[in-house]
Design goal:
alpha/beta; four-stranded parallel β-sheet; four-stranded antiparallel β-sheet; 19% strand
Length: 302
């Protein structure tokens, strides 16, 4: 069996680190709204991959996280008058219903960000101890990208290509540095930590969850396959890989797979672009099996 690795940009023979077993991690939804067809596309691609691997006789451990704390969730809660917990629960349940309707199998494990704060704090502490992270005056903690010799090796970007993609903070050592922990000094949603009250950075979540829940054995890679949408290769997966590489003595994933987008008029379907429509609405017009066939009828990278 061969897998097209989207980092190496070539087909590689698939050889899992543990014979007969596969560890697969896919970035899941941020639950602040209903799922659109773009979410369904990614879920279906990796559902199919899982089924193929199981059909080949592998025992597959498939983890897909839920981001249940995020600025978008907080904003939705403020707009609706509900708590962030209520918002996350409402849209997590809706996501599960939509995925079941199009035949997506539930993951082996579905960790939530809010239940993994201690794992994230543990990784932050390791990065601080090893000199890969630093704290600024307001209590925020940043990853120091200049200390990682492998940074940008995943996306093959130049060091000045990503300046505009990150927030501008005057105390950051380098424009590309990204937040590991965001300190909270008011009454907004926060979590207790050894670093004070705050919220974790989004990129930290998956790295910490993989290390805590999915990694099996002392291997060169934490997991066999890491998947997600093509838009996650940079900066999300780049930053994930950096965190894992610098906090441990291994790389994050042996194989990287990224699915293409559902497009509308030549543009990626996205809530932010205002050109998306909800899966639940499509399901009112078409059977889930029809939508599954439609979304899988194009190549997964297309």
């Amino acid at each position: 069996m061969f897998i097209y690795d989207s980092v190496k940009k070539s087909k590689l023979r698939f050889e899992p680190q543990n014979e007969g077993k596969v560890s697969l991690y896919v970035c899941g939804p941020t639950v602040y709204d209903d799922a659109h067809l773009g979410h369904a596309k990614s879920a279906l691609v990796f559902d199919l991959l899982r089924r193929v691997l199981e059909g080949e006789g592998y025992e597959v451990f498939f983890a897909r996280n839920i981001t249940d704390i995020d600025d978008k969730i907080i904003n939705k809660a403020l707009q609706s008058g509900l708590s962030t917990t209520e918002i996350a629960q409402r849209y997590s349940e809706a996501y599960h219903q939509d995925m079941a309707a199009i035949g997506v199998l539930p993951p082996t494990l579905e960790p939530k960000a809010t239940e993994s704060i201690d794992a994230m704090c543990e990784m932050i502490q390791k990065l601080l101890d090893k000199g890969h992270a630093y704290t600024i005056s307001n209590g925020d903690i940043y990853f120091d990208t200049a200390t990682d010799k492998g940074y940008l090796s995943l996306s093959n970007r130049q060091s000045d290509d990503n300046v505009s993609r990150v927030e501008k903070v005057s105390e950051k050592r380098h424009e590309a540095d990204f937040a590991l922990w965001k300190a909270v000094h008011d009454d907004s949603v926060s979590f207790d930590s050894p670093f004070g009250k705050g919220r974790p950075g989004w990129h930290l979540e998956c790295s910490a969850m993989i290390e805590r829940y999915v990694r099996s054995g002392d291997h060169p890679y934490a997991i066999d396959i890491h998947g997600g949408g093509a838009d996650l290769l940079f900066p999300h997966h780049e930053n994930e890989a950096a965190q894992t590489r610098c906090s441990s003595n291994h790389e994050l994933a042996k194989y990287w797979m990224h699915n293409g987008f559902v497009t509308i008029g030549g543009e990626k379907m996205s809530k932010s672009l205002g050109n998306s429509f909800f899966l639940k609405d499509a399901l009112k017009a078409y059977d889930g099996e029809v939508l599954r066939f439609y979304l899988l009828s194009t190549h997964y990278r297309g």
